[in-house]
Amino acid sequence: MKQKNFLSFVVCATLASSTLLHGEKEVAQADLDEVSPAKQPNIVFLLTDDQRWDTLGCYGRTDVVTPHIDKLAANGVTFDNAYHAVAICMPSRATMLTGRYFSDHQVGFAYPYDRAFTAEEFADSYPAQLKKAGYRTGFVGKFGVRLERLDSMLADQFDYYTIIPGAGKRGRDLVHQSYATDERLNEIHSKTRDPKERTLIKGDSMIHFLDTQPSGQPFCLSVSFDAVKNDKDDDMYGPHVELFEGKEMWVPGNYVAGKNERLPKVLDHGRGTRLHLQRTATPEEYQRRTRRFAVQGYTVDQQVKRLMDKLEEMGELDNTIVIYTSDNGRFHGAHGIFDKCILYDEAVKQPLIIFDPRAKESSRGTRIDAMVSSTDVAPTILSLMGLEAPASMKGLDLSGLLDGSQDMSTWREAVLMENLFIEEMFKLKKGDKDKLNTQLIADNQSYRSRGVRTERYKYFSYHEHDPVVEELYDLEEDPLEVNNLAGNKEYSVLLGKLREKAKSLLEDSMN
């Protein structure tokens, strides 16, 4: 792996991050003259579960409470056109670890897209590449990605990990073997703790990683929360529940009470329409569950505060890049759907904030509207750490967007999006999977889909349906995606162009 020359940031982060985040006095010019050369930066990657982009204050919501995430955005860069290449947990996480598209890596829940990463493939992930470069690597929380040999591959690429089974799942907590007798870690993971403190437990483990960080070694810490998935009570921390009791929550303009008869009929086979009728089909249930999202989002926000306070205490705040995002969104009643996967913006639009304390003061609090994909996360992390991305990574490096050096005439105009999940295939544990898959397609029950999102338009098709079902939206005129233009003859030329764009991007993703 080739190491790049680190960017030379003038007077860099000491002044910028201390002044902007904590209001301390500016460093005198005489002190600046004695600043030593920049050392290797650290990285903390924060990932939430099912957190829709518009459930954060920095993206415009006023009924949620996320002050510390908002502060991160105010002192960093916020992306307004970031999109998940795939909008369901496992394949999305696999994409962000490796910079590869779902059709390429095929690490997902349901046959035939249910393979596991080999050790060779996982060695190209961003944490493995940073470990190879001398970083101390850590992982806290929900891993949720298939590996051929889970324990040994985790131990190979992470110096520290504490992984808790997901909501409703039984199994052992996975802790790096060198920490098996760690007294503090055993306290953190004690079975006597209130299970509703699960987000706090992840925060405790995050802090413990930093408490055990050797002096002089750069670190890469990935923290993966189960929140804000609101199906279970595991992340409903009591004192935070009280903050939102009885609060009236915002309702989007495309929320549908009951069944949405305007949806393509193929979506009758998707679990999202069924779960909506069970969970969010009445205004009362919508409000109750939206408060649950807000509670969990606030608890995560408090862990962001703990992180930033700890980095300041360690003297590492000026040299630690923090990235905040989610693995996918959730409809929560929008379009008359509850779940994710389907390629409307509520599922595929990605919250993405990057705080780099080394950046120029003029770039702080900026917003970027360039088209960004979740495949860009891994190569960007490596670039910001001064490393070249391996050839397997298909995403783009965002560092030129962050520092303003990117030639926008060469930047992408569209991003590829896919859904390759079918619930029936996921449920089938025994039997002939290939036969069932073939039958579902023949019966027009497959809602696998792919398409493209440009700044103005979105096109996608349920490509295994016969005839193919297509959707096209003018997002400037119809940001809520309620008026499908695919059957409008006035848009036939545009439809053809976007079909070809989706085809070419898919081919590129697998080459």
Helix count from the secondary structure assignment: 19
> What share of residues are in beta strands?
5-15%
Q: Roughly how many Å apart are the termini? A: 21 Å
Overall average residue pLDDT: 91
Sheet having the most strands = 9 strands, mixed
> Which percent bin holds the helix content?
25-40%
**Helix/strand-derived class?**
alpha/beta
- Using the coordinates shown, work out and report the CATH topology of the largest domain: Alkaline Phosphatase, subunit A
Number of separate structural domains: 2
If you compute it from the alpha carbons, what radius of gyration comes out, rounded to the nearest whole angstrom? 22 Å
CATH architecture of the largest domain: 3-Layer(aba) Sandwich
Short description:
This protein has helices at 12-22, 29-32, 67-74, 89-98, 102-105, 119-122, 126-132, 150-157, 183-188, 198-211, 238-241, 271-279, 283-314, 345-348, 377-384, 399-403, 423-427, 433-442, 492-509, and strands spanning 42-48, 77-79, 82-83, 136-141, 160-163, 174-175, 219-224, 320-326, 352-355, 366-368, 372-373, 414-419, 449-454, 457-462, 469-474.
